[in-house]
Amino acid sequence: MNVGDKAPEVLGMDENGGQVLLSRFRGRKLVLYFYPKDNTSGCTAEACSLRDNYQALQEKGYEVVGVSVDGAESHKKFIAKHELPFTLIADTDKKLVSEMGVWGEKSMYGRKYMGTFRTTFVIDENGVIEKIFLPKEIKTKTHGEQLLAL
């Protein structure tokens, strides 16, 4: 996916098993952020930055939705532990990460594996991608502030 592309209508299933549709956010901007794994240090820092800036983001017309390939139960625990006020999509079938182009080969300590590239898409009121934060651009501890600076 690139800037100017229309985001997919069906985003996936949330932590409660409900379907999340892009049209639910029509008229608001959507911060759709992809992260590798619940309860890891970088992902927790990013989620908490978004949580801490959530009210300010909402005041600027944004809604926030997180996506990882973790299951719904993992998401529920992550939300409860860190008091996250936003929806997390459980993309266990890897449909959305694949469709958005954020799933691929990664490398850590010389070991190669498949995983999610930390990426944030800012989607406008009409469902069109207007900004993409690539993995090297995202500062996990201050990602909420990065978005507010747009």
Tell me about this structure.
This protein is α/β, with parallel strands linked by helices and 150 residues long. It has a single domain, classed as 3-Layer(aba) Sandwich (Glutaredoxin), CATH 3.40.30.10. 27% of the residues lie in helices and 31% in strands. The protein contains 5 helices and 9 strands; from the N terminus they run βββααβαβαββββα. Strands 5-4-3-8-9 form a 5-stranded mixed sheet. Strands 1-2 form a two-stranded antiparallel sheet. The protein is globular and about 45 Å long. The two termini are 20 Å apart.
Main attributes of the structure:
150 residues; alpha/beta; two-stranded antiparallel ribbon; 9 strands
Q: Please write the CATH class name.
A: Alpha Beta
Enter the CATH topology name: Glutaredoxin
Total of DSSP H or I helical runs spanning 4+ residues = 5
Please summarize the sheet with the most strands: 5 strands, mixed
Overall pLDDT, averaged? 97
The CATH superfamily is: Glutaredoxin
Written as H for each helix and E for each strand, in order along the chain, the element string is: EEEHHEHEHEEEEH
Which structural category do the helix and sheet elements fall into? Answer: alpha/beta
- The total beta strand count reads 9
Gyration radius, rounded: 14 Å
Give me the secondary-structure topology:
Layout: E1 10-13, E2 19-21, E3 29-34, H1 41-52, H2 54-59, E4 62-68, H3 72-82, E5 87-90, H4 95-99, E6 103-108, E7 111-116, E8 119-123, E9 129-133, H5 143-148
Gist of the model:
The protein is α/β, with parallel strands linked by helices and 150 residues long.
